Amino acid sequence: MAREATRRGVLAAAVSLPLVATGCRGVGGLGTPPSPLPDVAILRDAIDAETLMIARYGAVMTTVPALADSLRPLVRQHREHLATLRARLIEPRPSTRPEHPPSARASPAGTHVPSTPAAARAYLRRAEQAAAQTLLSKLTAAPPSLAQLLASIAASEASHALLLEPGRPDG
Amino acid sequence: MSASPSPPAAEAARQGAGLLAGRPPARAAAVRALQTALAAEHAAVYGYGIAGAHLGGARRHAATRDWTAHQAARDTLAAMITALGAQPVQAATAYRLPFPVHTRAAAVMLAAYLEDRVAAAYLGLVALPDAGLRMFGARAVRSAALRAVGWRRRSLAFPGLELPAPRPVRSAPGASKPAAGSSSPARASPSAPPTGQAGG
């Protein structure tokens, strides 16, 4: 008898969970597919932007090998950005989206990578400034903790742009 | 703290008062976040005074410039808090430094340390629902990160979220032996306090 009561209690608890998760709207709530969270689109864009940035650095380091040593710490930080952004992304259907987006978005293919060190650094500096600005434009639409992450990454990218200024070979 | 806010501070105060009129919970959260940022600015103003005393030449000039920037930010925050109907937190008479500052290298390290803490404090504003305060906080995080780069000569991956433990900064040419510090980096919540108050 006591065991039966316990089992009923467990079943009741199990049934009540989906109701809690759907805001206690009852059976009707269960039939509604979950709408995409607003931060998923923001995260995807930020992930694409970081992937593109890493590809840009890779292209510059290939074209101007003399810059490789000074650029490596910056690339490493972009990889940290990318890993942290990816860790926050929970996609409902991962198969619909390749892990590495098509080259049109994720690689600087078709973009002319300057061949002189100064021009290559200026190219990356502009890319960093634009990326930071794009992140800030997403700030108000993001949930609080994601907004903090975006603001932090934007500050990091603005720091990269500063290190890439002319006369700062230690970037 | 100056008795009358500077023009940018007055403008910020007007903005702060207008943005949050009639929303008590949002106002309380905004005041808390602004007070945290103000406390960090008080600590930075104090800390730059110590750092500047151990620096010379271009470094001293940079310390004076950043000290002035923190004073202006402090006045802006105080005006914003006042406009929201709250009493701005006061500076402590003295602050406990995170490590001994007797050398040029330690002074440079202290400046970078202060900027990391200021960035962390402003990140609290970025979590607020108000769009204007979010952007204000994000711009301040960026400014602190850029000043930190000036001292540390390298960037952080996550300014404000990443609080490196104090350690030697290898940037000042001819710098004397830096103060010892822990080598393990630490992560802290965006609301982490800046340098602790003396005796607190």
Describe the structure.
The complex is a heterodimer of chains A (171) and B (200). Chain A is mainly alpha-helical and 171 residues long. Chain A has a domain at 38-87 and 114-163. Helices cover 68% and strands 0% of the residues of chain A. Chain A contains seven helices and no strands. Chain A has helices at 2-21, 27-30, 38-63, 68-88, 103-106, 117-137, 144-163. In chain A, α3 packs antiparallel against α4 and α3 runs antiparallel to α6. Chain A starts with a helix and ends in an 8-residue tail after the last helix. Mean pLDDT of chain A is 78; it is low at 1-29 and 100-105. Chain B has 200 residues and is mainly α. Chain B has one domain: Ferritin (Up-down Bundle), CATH 1.20.1260. Helices cover 57% and strands 2% of the residues of chain B. Chain B is built from five helices and two strands; from the N terminus they run αααααββ. Chain B has helices at residues 7-19, 24-53, 57-83, 104-126, 131-152; strands spanning 162-163, 186-187. Chain B has a two-stranded antiparallel ribbon. The chains are: A mainly alpha (171), B mainly alpha (200). Chain A binds chain B through residues 73-74, 76-77, 80-81, 84, 132, 136, 139-140, 144-145, 147-149, 151-156, 158-160, 162-163, 170, and chain B through 119, 123, 126-129, 131, 134-135, 137-138, 141-142, 144-146, 148-149, 153-162, 190.
How would you briefly describe this protein structure?
Chain A has 171 residues and is mainly α. Chain A has helices spanning 2-21, 27-30, 38-63, 68-88, 103-106, 117-137, 144-163.
Attribute tags:
heterodimer; A: 171 residues; mainly alpha; 7 helices; B: 200 residues; Ferritin; 5 helices
Find the count of extended strands of chain B (DSSP E, 2+ residues): 2
Give the CA-CA distance, first to last residue of chain A. Answer: 73 Å
- Biggest β-sheet: strands ordered side by side in the sheet of chain B: 1-2
The CATH topology of chain B is given as Ferritin
Largest interface: A-B, 28 and 29 residues
**Fraction in beta strands of chain A:** under 5%
In one word, what is the shape of chain A? elongated
Structural class of chain B: mainly alpha
Quaternary state reads heterodimer
For the report, how would you describe the main beta sheet of chain A? none
Question: Which sequence of SSEs, written as H and E, runs from N to C of chain A?
Answer: HHHHHHH
Q: Give the integer mean of the pLDDT values of chain B.
A: 81
Secondary-structure element order of chain B, as H and E?
HHHHHEE
The major sheet of chain B is characterized as:
2 strands, antiparallel
Number of helices of chain B: 5
